[in-house]
Amino acid sequence: MMTISYEYEGALYVNLTNRCDCACVFCLRHNGHKGSIYADDLWLEHEPTREEALDDLRKRDLPSYRELVFCGFGEPMFRTDDILWLVDRLKEEVPGLPPVRINTNGHANLIQGRDVTADLAGRIDTVSISLNGSTAEEYCAVTQPKDGVQGWEAMLDFTRRATAYVPHVVMTIVDKDKTPEEIQRCRTLAESLGARLRVRAYIPE
Ligand code: SF4
């Protein structure tokens, strides 16, 4: 049994990969977790093919959701081309498809070795990028990216570029152990890139 899509608060979440180039200290993938508060069985025994994911999504009443969200129990942009393919198929097949969001660490261009942001145009309505801190040092301490400070720079660059093609570009931080000054620094940074900051409530396990 594995979960490709699951509902949460009126949205449909799609999980295509366990892979990630970060090792965030708070990540549920550590410590043998296979699920989250959102769903069990999020650890994929194999990555679904794009066709398997499409079959799964076709069984859903897609227009009934407020949003379709590509996230992952990993970094969804490892599957960038498959996400784009899926969105194209769904836009062809489903009248009234809800807005599409990608929750990402912002490393797509680093992972794919090319600038993918133009491909998001007309397909993706929102990208939500985890900011995690207002400096490279803090960011790297929390997310432990494989490529170190290059991961921080790639995330900022991706965000800036995405604002040219995606209507809603949001950076998120979790409101845990953050001073108002730190939150303000994150807000200033997000806005300097053309994005909006969203402060998410901390959900303890
Ligand atoms: S970016 Fe997301 S999936 Fe990757 S380690 Fe961090 S929390 Fe986990």
The domain count comes to 1
Task: Supply the number of helical segments.
Answer: 6
Residue-averaged pLDDT: 93
Give the helices and strands as they follow along the chain: EEHEHEHEHHEHE
Distance between the termini: 23 Å
Query: What is the fourth-level CATH superfamily?
Result: Aldolase class I
Bound molecules: iron/sulfur cluster
Major sheet size, sense and barrel closure: 7 strands, mixed
Reported by name, the CATH topology is TIM Barrel
* Record field, number of beta strands: 7
Report Rg.
Answer: 16 Å
Spans of at least 5 consecutive residues with low confidence: none
Q: What is the CATH architecture term?
A: Alpha-Beta Barrel
Q: Specify the structural class.
A: alpha/beta
CATH class: Alpha Beta
Strand order of the largest sheet: 1-2-3-4-5-6-7
Outline type? globular
Q: Which percent range fits the helix content?
A: 25-40%
- Give the strand content: 15-25%
Domain Radical SAM core: 6-205
Keywords: Iron, Iron-sulfur, Metal-binding, S-adenosyl-L-methionine
Protein name: Radical SAM protein
Organism: Pseudoflavonifractor gallinarum
